[in-house]
Amino acid sequence: MSARLDRRVTFERQGAGRNALNEPTGAWAPLATLWAARTDLSETERGAAGQIGAVRAARFTLRRSVLTRSLTGADRLRDEGMIWNITGVAARGLWIDVSAVSNGRKEEA
After folding, report:
1. Exposure pattern of 63-84 as b/e (b: 16+ CB <10 Å)?
2. Beta strands of the chain (E only): which ranges?
3. I need a labelling partner for 29 at 20 to 30 A (CA). Which of 1, 43, 82, 84 fits?
4. Which residues contact residue 23 at a Cβ distance below 8 angstroms, ignoring those fewer than 6 apart?
5. What is residue 65's predicted lDDT score, i.e. its pLDDT?
6. d(CA 8, CA 64)
7. Which of 65, 18, 53, 59 lies closest to 41, judged by CA?
């Protein structure tokens, strides 16, 4: 059974800049825009520091390629204008499953 690749997602990788605390400061740059299938896994609310925030989890399925095999948790993706942080990448035959979470933000804070 093949996945229905019905959406375009853009993968981004952060530039190499670092500050005095060794934190990444480089701008996010597009890596590639690919066809993917999205499966929503859960939506939860969590409280942190007195604030309640919604968290969504999803799995994006893509065709396996050299580029998709190079994706890591340091990368992120955009789907329907939302930013998704990659939490895992797993190969499954001809497919790559990318697990990601989003808090619904549309732009970098």
Report:
1. eeeeebeebeeebbbbbeebbb
2. 7-14, 28-48, 51-63, 76-79, 82-92, 95-102
3. 43
4. none
5. 92
6. 15
7. 59
Whole-number Cα distances in Å, 78 to 52, 67, 94: 23, 16, 23
- Are 49 and 23 in contact by the 8 Å Cβ rule? The answer is no
Domains and CATH numbers, the chain: 7-102 (2.40.10.270)
Rounded to 5 degrees, what are φ and ψ at 67? -65, -50
pTM above 0.70, yes or no: yes
Digit-coded pLDDT (tens) for 45-99:
444 444 556 788 899 999 999 999 999 999 999 998 899 999 999 999 999 999 9
Scan for tokens 């697990």, then name that residue: 99
- Picking from 62, 61, 56, 54, the residue whose alpha carbon sits closest to that of residue 40 is 56
Instruction: Provide Rg for the chain, Cα atoms.
Output: 15
In this structure, the chain runs to a length of: 109
